């Protein structure tokens, strides 16, 4: 398993991406039961391979990651697909040669993507923009990630309840949680918290939240 070396802006993002990578061995087991799957990999924001596996010779080790690197060198369209998903925060797809497609599924952090899952699979001649297989892969990965986050949030809530001592502590926690929920959109946050935008700005500045 690869330890992340990339310096993301938010250290919580680093921990979360690391945990998601740890979960990929379980996700891969489910995905490998899908007959059309060829390979799955996880990349950081610089497209370094941090997890990879398929049904044949590709394993999650140094040699496997080198094979993925060589594959990307020969498949620039897949690289563009992965980068596009990281840039937009949306799922992207590109049709590969020999009846295969590449699907890029971004892993969202606090404010933006912190990584991306890449899947190569057989399309069975599907020419639609979104095929059933696309939705299946997205759902499986998103369900795993959502379940992980639910567990993490419950654990965080339990630990936070012991450390929140003052009204300001609770207020700061509420702002941080709302920020994550609203993707740090100030207007949405202010509406959710039922306070004015300027008031929210002042509180965030006072609390050192940027």
Structure description:
The longest helix is centred in the C-terminal third of the chain and has 32 residues, at 132-163. The protein has helices at residues 11-31, 62-74, 76-88, 132-163, 167-181, 186-193, 197-207, and strands at 37-43, 49-54, 92-95, 100-108, 113-122. α1 packs across α4 (132-163). The relative contact order is 0.11. The chain is elongated and about 55 Å long. It has two domains: 11-151, GAF domain (Beta-Lactamase), CATH 3.30.450; 165-207, Arc Repressor Mutant, subunit A. The protein has a five-stranded antiparallel β-sheet, sandwiched between helices. The protein is α+β, with helices and mostly antiparallel strands. The chain contains seven helices and five strands.
Q: Main sheet?
A: 5 strands, antiparallel
Work out the number of β strands.
5
CATH topology tier name of the largest domain: Beta-Lactamase
Q: In which range does the helix fraction lie? A: 40-55%
What is the radius of gyration computed over CA atoms, rounded to a whole number of angstroms?
20 Å
Output the number of helix runs.
7
Give me the CATH superfamily of the largest domain: GAF domain
The helix/strand series, from N terminus to C terminus, equals HEEHHEEEHHHH
Distance between the termini: 33 Å
Spatial sequence of strands, sheet with the most strands: 2-1-5-4-3
